[in-house]
Amino acid sequence: FEFDNYDTGKYVYDNRHVKAGLTAKSIKWAFTTVYFSNWHPLTWLSHMLDVQLYGLHPGRHHLTNVLFHIANTILLFVILRRMTGKLWQSAFVAALFALHPLHVESVAWVAERKDLLSTLFGLLVLWSYRRYVENPAVGRYVPVLLFFLLSLMSKPMMVTLPFILLLLDYWPLQRLDFGTANKIKPLAKRGYAGWFLVVEKLPLFIMAAASCLVTVYAQRAGGSIGSMDVYPFHIRVSNALTSYVSYIGKMIWPAKLAVIYPYDRMLPAWQTWSACCLIIGITLLSVKYHKSRPWFPVGWFWFLGTLVPVIGLVQVGTQAMADRYTYVPIVGLFIILAWGLFELLARWSYRKLSFAVIAVVSSGVLMAVTWQQIGYWKNSVILFQRAVDVTENNFVAENNLGHALLMDGKFAEAAEHFKKSVEINPRFAIAHLNMGLVLSQEDKPEAALQSYAKALVQNPDFAVAYNLAGKTHYRLGKTEQAILNYQNALKIDPAFAEAHNNLGKALFRLGKHDEAFASYRQALTIDPLYAEVYNSMGNFWYHTGNSEKALPNFMKAQKINPKLAEAYNGAGAALIRMGEARQAAGFFREAVMIDPDYIAARTNLKNTLAALEKNK
């Protein structure tokens, strides 16, 4: 399957630090950046290692995700088996975890590696904690702290893990004895005072609090946290309550799953109050049966508690909910299902056989639905077409579908989806920008500039919009205006390598050669593997009469990007000046093969072949 166009570019194929692989510079960046509103250095290192091993082959990156998911499934089974002593129930929980369609997003989405990685280390916390409980000692507590730190450095989703450990202290570890009827042999002495169990986890709570502070800082720095003006608190509470119920519903009946669910600010009051009553009712029921069925409150509060960081009380992004958020929380509901079903079958003569049959059948159904759901992740067109089909007023899905169609050269279809996106949300700057891209491709530069202007009205700090407006002005011959736009882009984002390169080209056109060369050098300092800059430097030396310096730059550009037709044409032109016509013809031919509509390369090839034929 292909890389999708929903964040994966930021995480992998358009991220210059990740594409550089594991270098000293990229590793330092991973630990010091809050790029894309996140601080998760281990996730960055994981993607860098994938690039180091596989390059940008999407199938291999997907394979890594699958391997992490398999590891998480096995760990979950082993942990539950060792903690509870129950083979069948533990196996059923692990099977549901492995196969449920709600988990497709976390595995099939390369950018969600952070979910898998943080869960892996989180489960290792549970494994280490079980060993610590068997024989409490400082040496056995250190791995708990270490794995928790690694989990938080992958994704802060597991900040609620100390609370999970307190739940496990109650059941199945039975370190806090409320007179439960569970007869499982405890792993440690029973009857620990509640205060001691909390104090014991104080280092974990401190680490979780620190992670929350870092996360809030990173999200605010990236502008990802929604304001109370846009998302009032009562609407957030309403969305949180209905989302809890929606997650339960999708766990039972996983239909109409989408990569993004639009935020509905007009939820009916009856829906909110019904969700509230259902949550309170289940909570009271779980408390009522805490002695005879301790797995019930543990599973329920696991589900409620682990969703708190992403339930929307602190709104991050534009989604109302997300399938990926259930990766860990839904385990609590699976525990209730597995142990509850086993108890329901208690009076049956063939309880284990019946349980196995039900588990196999349900797993088979989930497998079929999951197989279908995975298919929607084949490429961005299919992924976001599905989201548009199963949701309403989904302006993000409309925009991303349009962008995918734009990349496929289907400009008219793309434009329709961008129009729908801005009709739903006129303040969505990215859709205005993408409409400008379509208009530019349709050779309507003036209309494209109007779209870029609309994008900048909605987001005055939109560096990409300034850069694209600059490119359009440059194309129209308005070089001074182009330079002004590039400079505005660089004021907002000084590390914008493309804007530095474009500024260099505009300055060169005005004859400001020294300033142009300085811009190219700055672009290469930011991104040493930026092929287009080497091509620009090749043109710089070629047009200043130094073909010997031009050629190596064109060759470097080809090496980094073998599909850059301009670099082959430039190398051919330099070789012509150096008297190497036969070798030049090969480069012109390569440029035409890459881009059959490249008129300059076709003309150069024709003229070179004619000259060679004449000189025979």
What is shown here, in short?
This protein has 31 helices and no strands. With 616 residues, the chain is an all-alpha fold. The protein is elongated, with a radius of gyration of 29 Å.
Rg computed from alpha carbons, rounded to a whole number of angstroms? 29 Å
Distance between the termini: 50 Å
Q: Biggest sheet, open or closed, and with what strands and sense?
A: none
Shape: elongated
Q: Decide which structural class fits the backbone.
A: mainly alpha
Strand content: under 5%
Tell me the number of strands: 0
The helix fraction, in percent, is over 70%
Low-confidence stretches: 178-190
Mean pLDDT: 94
Number of helices: 31
What is the strand and helix layout of this fold?
Layout: H1 8-13, H2 16-19, H3 24-32, H4 41-54, H5 58-84, H6 87-99, H7 104-108, H8 113-134, H9 138-152, H10 161-170, H11 194-200, H12 202-221, H13 233-252, H14 269-288, H15 295-306, H16 330-344, H17 351-375, H18 380-390, H19 395-407, H20 411-424, H21 429-441, H22 445-458, H23 463-475, H24 479-492, H25 497-509, H26 513-526, H27 531-543, H28 547-560, H29 565-577, H30 581-594, H31 599-614
Description:
The longest helix has 27 residues, at 58-84. The chain is 70% helix and 0% strand. Mean pLDDT is 94; it is low at 178-190. The two termini are 50 Å apart. It has 616 residues and is mainly α. Helix 29 (565-577) runs parallel beside helix 31 (599-614). The protein has helices spanning 8-13, 16-19, 24-32, 41-54, 58-84, 87-99, 104-108, 113-134, 138-152, 161-170, 194-200, 202-221, 233-252, 269-288, 295-306, 330-344, 351-375, 380-390, 395-407, 411-424, 429-441, 445-458, 463-475, 479-492, 497-509, 513-526, 531-543, 547-560, 565-577, 581-594, 599-614.
